[in-house]
Structure formats: structure tokens, C-alpha cells
Amino acid sequence: MRVVALHVAPERHAAMEERAAIEVVAGRGVVGDRWWGTRHRHVSVQSVEALAAAAAELGRPVPPSATRRTVTVAGLDVPTDPGARLLVGPGDDGAQDGADGVLLEVVRVAAPCRVMETSMGPGGAVALRRRGGSILRALTSGTIRLGDRVTLL
């Protein structure tokens, strides 16, 4: 389970910008992202497997940036149950305090919105239903990089 794409948008409705790394601050979110400082919407996570299923339904590719999610992972069903935790970072020892990575906690499902109809085209929001990933809060600070390991705790 690895991070395969990272994106931020500096303001609402701005184009998503691809990044090799993002800086996450506990209780604040992703530095430079439109959701910085919100109460709980710190990081959004989706899987490439869910994007592939959405693409099959739509009949066209769904690039990670089109969904407007921050982190895209491979090899993991993104948890949707509130309170579930992910550790993202170079370590893989399952440390619960985030010492070896960024500790994230699921707040809610990331429901697709009407913006998906623009970014993905007609049918985008429907194709992402139950495939949109999750919204998580940052419990610890650190850097998330492409290729980082993702561990479900």
C-alpha cells in the first residue's frame, strides 16, 4: 500500500496541482491547500482501484486530479468508518503515535459533489458514489511523499 499521487488546490475551484510531497500540520491540514485550517477536513484520500472502477463505469479514464482528492493510494481499500486510522510515511512498524509518519483519522466519507460533473464530465459524481474515498483529520504533523507506505491501523 503506497501513495501514488498527491494534489492540492490553492483555493476553491482552482485547478489541482500535482506535488511530489505535501506538508501536513496536525489540526490544520495541508499547507497551501484550500481546506487549510478547517475544523476536520484536513486530508482527503482515495484509491486508484476505486478510480479504475469509476473509469470502467464511465467508459473513460479518471485521473486522480479529477476527483479533487489530496492523496491517492494503491493497494488499499480506503476506510470509511469514522475513527479508523491510517499511518502514512516511510515507516511500517504500525506505531500508533505517528512518530514514523503522519497519523490520519477518518471523519467521514468523501461524497462526490457537483464539481465532479465539471472535472470528470457528465456522470462523474454518480460514478464516484461509494468510491470517493474519505475525509480525514491530521492527528500528527509531517511530510507525505510519493511512494510513502500507507498502513491501516
UniProtKB/TrEMBL annotation:
<feature type="domain" description="MOSC">
    <location>
        <begin position="17"/>
        <end position="153"/>
    </location>
</feature>
<dbReference type="InterPro" id="IPR005302">
    <property type="entry name" value="MoCF_Sase_C"/>
</dbReference>
<dbReference type="Pfam" id="PF03473">
    <property type="entry name" value="MOSC"/>
</dbReference>
<dbReference type="InterPro" id="IPR011037">
    <property type="entry name" value="Pyrv_Knase-like_insert_dom_sf"/>
</dbReference>
<dbReference type="InterPro" id="IPR052716">
    <property type="entry name" value="MOSC_domain"/>
</dbReference>
<protein>
    <recommendedName>
        <fullName>MOSC domain-containing protein</fullName>
    </recommendedName>
</protein>
